[in-house]
Design a protein that fits this description.
The termini are far apart. Helix 7 crosses helix 8, helix 9 packs across helix 11 and helix 21 runs antiparallel to helix 22. A hairpin with a 3-residue loop joins strand 13 and strand 14. The strands form 7 sheets. A 3-stranded antiparallel β-sheet has the order 3-5-4. The protein is elongated, with a radius of gyration of 60 Å. It is mainly α. Among the domains are: 72 residues, no CATH class; 89 residues, no CATH class; 133 residues, no CATH class; 104 residues, no CATH class. It contains 30 helices and 19 strands. Belongs to the UFL1 family. InterPro entries: Ufl1, Ufl1-like_C, Ufl1_dom, Ufl1_N.
């Protein structure tokens, strides 16, 4: 039975083994069998495109378009690249690494940065906080070694801008970066403490003003840290001083300097701006006005109000007592004349200018009141009146010379619109024969003696100044009384009552005569251009004729005018050289000398030297020598034309008639007037030949031949035929230039044409 059971079980076991092997074979066959239906690559692409179109999935294309990347995958790859670049990568560098276009990368980067606080997008670069921490660690090591680093240096080391570096480092101060930032520099605490100690020690030892630039240069300080540290030390009271304009001044020096200024000002009552400039005060005037509010600022000095009050008191007393004052003892000697005037103007009781002026400054330091000067003027008037009553005012040559010397500085140049009073020059004593003789007039001597007797304590300098003021007054009073004597004496002299010798009329005649001289000189120049080889000879004849007539007359009138001004009585009209010489001897040398020089030029060949002599003497003799302008010249030519035509219309002398006709023809043709002698008529007539019709020129030439015969009639009898031609030809000759009659115009002095048979 046991065996039977066993056989049965063996059979069942064999069946099971056979069934398992079959199953394995079938499974293997199934695995090895090929699938009949499968998806192709095209189907996959179409399926993916369909999913993208329906929006079920989002992908990004690669640059070659053969691959797709999902946003999640793109983010992973960007983060992987940031980590691979150690926390800093430029967005543009991701394009080749990811094989993606820049636009989707930039959008994804912005999204990543927004969602991740550990990332920053700075100027196109992705920077992690870890990267900035590493920068701070590296800079901290450098900072601890060197003590200071500039922000520019730190930024340049990592190729970053200071706008990125500075905020990042500020955020890590005290945590990663052990130091502090100030004005673009990074410092360690030990470095700044050493700086403070150095600066404190250096400036504590300074006792006089020192430039900050020299300290920075000598010790190699950094300018910004140096200035900020210095300001903190001064503000905290650790350093006793201040700096301005790059100059440090310790208080010990400033206090000493202020004590010196106060001491000097209180002792001397003044101080100069130059002294303060040497003490390095750039605006001394403003400083002193703030330091001493009651003081007075002058041009170069600053004075105490006490000096003004003292000066005002002394001057006020002088004004009330009609006296004078010497302010030299009251004011510092260093004050200039202009500053003394400023002091006087600051005095309440003083008025220096205008009609209400009550004092006059004399010789810088002396002040004379108006009442005192009025008393002096009264003294002069009394002395002059007394001398006139006693007949002590004479007209001797010596006294006249003294008057001229006194009046010389006050004379103005003629031709000016006004005159200015010029202080009289100080008269110095002259030594004659070993003796000292004061060259002052008897009137001045008398006035001066009275002043000294009345004011024995008057300083010599002040006395001289008063006499300078009184000198014009003395001269004026003396002239008034002398003129009265002269008029009284002249009233009995018939020769001195003629109008032509009066100064005013003479000067007017001289002015007209000088204008005519200039006009005729221009005519000579115009005529000289017409002459050929005989230019010099013919011009010389006209020049001599002008000197002999008009210039000689001007010289004569000038002598008469000067004699009248000096109250010298002349007993002749100066028609001869002897009379002129005698008259010159009666005039003062200062006047007669230039007159003699002018007279010498009358014998010259050219009138130009006569003009030069007049110009050199113009200021001394007060001559009005005005050049001709075009308007005046035109007026004179018109006057001469009318005058000559008037004279011609009434002329009966054949020679004078011919001369007037020739001059008028020349004036008409050349627009110049000439002053010619009779012997030059033929020369002038020959120059008009081309400008005149042939019959007219023949008429003039024939008449000129008959005039020559007429002039020689005294030597030989004039035949009746020639005389008849002269009389008959006179009217046609006049008709050549006369048209419509002549105007009645006064003939200017020197223009009357008289025939000179030369």
């Amino acid at each position: 039975m046991f065996l039977g059971l066993s056989s049965h079980h063996l059979e069942d076991s064999k069946k099971m083994e056979l069934s398992l092997a079959q199953l394995q074979a079938q499974f293997k066959a199934a695995q090895q069998a090929q699938v009949a239906n499968r998806l192709s690559e095209r189907n996959c692409v179409e399926l993916l495109m369909k999913l993208i179109e329906t929006g079920r999935i989002q992908v990004q294309y690669t640059l070659n378009g053969r691959e797709y990347v999902t946003p999640q995958q793109l983010e992973k790859e960007i983060l992987r690249e940031i980590e691979a670049s150690k926390g800093r990568i430029n967005v543009t560098e991701l394009v080749p690494l990811l094989n993606m276009d820049l636009d989707p990368i930039e959008k994804k980067v912005e999204q990543i940065v927004r969602n991740n606080n550990g990332l920053q997008l700075l100027e196109g670069e992705i920077i992690t906080q870890t990267y900035l921490d590493n920068i701070a660690l590296e800079l901290n090591e450098m900072l601890q070694e060197r003590g200071s680093i500039t922000m520019q240096e730190a930024a340049a080391r990592f190729s970053l801008t200071t706008e990125i570096t500075e905020p990042a480092l500020n955020h890590r101060l005290g945590r990663v970066l052990q130091g502090f930032i100030e004005d673009g520099h990074i410092y360690t605490e030990s470095f700044t403490e050493r700086y403070v100690s150095q600066i404190r020690g250096i400036f504590s030892a300074i006792t006089r003003p020192t430039t900050l630039a020299s300290i920075i240069s000598r010790y190699g300080f950094q300018h910004r840290l140096f200035m900020s540290t210095l300001d903190r030390l001064i503000a905290g009271g650790r350093l006793q001083g201040n700096h301005n304009g790059g100059l440090y001044t310790p208080f010990v020096f400033a206090n000493t300097r202020l004590k010196q200024i106060d001491s000097f000002f209180h002792q001397n009552k003044y101080i100069s701006y130059q002294k303060l400039e040497k003490m390095d005060y750039n605006q001394p005037k403003s400083f002193l006005e703030g330091r001493f509010p009651e003081g007075v600022a002058l041009r170069n000095h600053f004075i105490s109000k006490l000096l003004i009050n003292q000066t005002n008191g002394v001057i006020e007393e002088a004004i009330q007592s009609d006296s004078y004052a010497d302010v030299q003892a009251l004011l510092p000697s260093v004050l200039s004349e202009a500053e003394i005037l400023q002091v006087l103007e600051a005095c309440p009781s003083v008025t220096l200018h205008g009609k209400n002026a009550n004092v006059t400054v004399i010789k810088d330091y002396h002040v004379a009141s108006k009442g005192f000067l009025n008393k002096c003027n009264q003294l002069v008037e009394e002395r002059m009146k007394d001398r006139a009553e006693k007949g002590l005012i004479t007209q001797s040559q010596e006294e006249t010379k003294e008057v001229e010397e006194e009046e010389e500085p006050t004379r103005g140049r003629k031709g000016a619109k006004g005159k200015k009073s010029v202080p009289a020059k100080k008269v110095e004593p002259k030594k004659r024969g070993g003796k000292t003789e004061a060259t002052i007039s008897p009137e001045e001597q008398e006035v001066g003696d009275h002043l000294k007797r009345e004011h024995e304590d008057m300083a010599e300098e002040f006395f001289e100044g008063v006499m300078e003021i009184l000198r014009p007054v003395i001269a004026r009073c003396r002239e008034t009384h002398a003129r009265a004597l002269f008029v009284k004496a002249a009233s009995s002299s018939e020769e001195n009552v003629k109008g032509k010798t009066k100064g005013t009329n003479i000067r007017a005649d001289m002015s007209t005569l000088y204008s005519n001289i200039l006009l005729f000189q221009k005519g000579i120049e115009a005529l000289a251009l017409e002459f050929s080889p005989k230019t010099t000879e013919d011009s010389s004849v006209l020049e001599k004729y002008l000197l002999k007539t008009l210039c000689t007359e001007y010289h004569r009138l000038l002598i008469l005018s000067e004699a009248s001004q000096h109250f010298i009585q002349l007993n002749s009209e100066l028609r001869t050289p002897a009379e002129i010489t005698k008259a010159l001897s009666q005039l003062p040398p200062a006047v007669s000398s230039p007159l003699q020089k002018i007279g010498t030029t009358l014998n010259d060949k050219s009138s130009i030297k006569f003009n030069e002599a007049l110009e050199s003497a113009a200021e001394r003799l007060e001559l009005q020598l005005r050049p001709l302008d075009k308007k005046q010249e035109k007026t004179l030519l018109s006057t001469h034309r009318a005058t000559l035509m008037q004279q011609l219309d009434s002329e009966e002398n054949p020679a004078t008639t011919l001369q007037l006709v020739v001059v008028l023809l020349f004036l008409k043709k050349k627009n110049c007037v000439i002053h010619i002698p009779g012997r030059s008529i033929s020369s002038v007539l020959s120059k008009l030949k081309d400008d005149l019709p042939a019959p007219v020129f023949s008429q003039l030439s024939a008449y000129q031949v008959d005039v020559v015969k007429f002039l020689n009639a005294e030597k030989q009898a004039l035949d009746e035929e020639t005389q008849s031609r002269l009389m008959q030809g006179m009217a046609p000759l006049k008709d050549l230039v006369l048209s419509g009659g002549a105007s009645i115009i006064r003939v200017p002095r020197g223009m009357e044409y008289n025939v000179i048979s030369e």
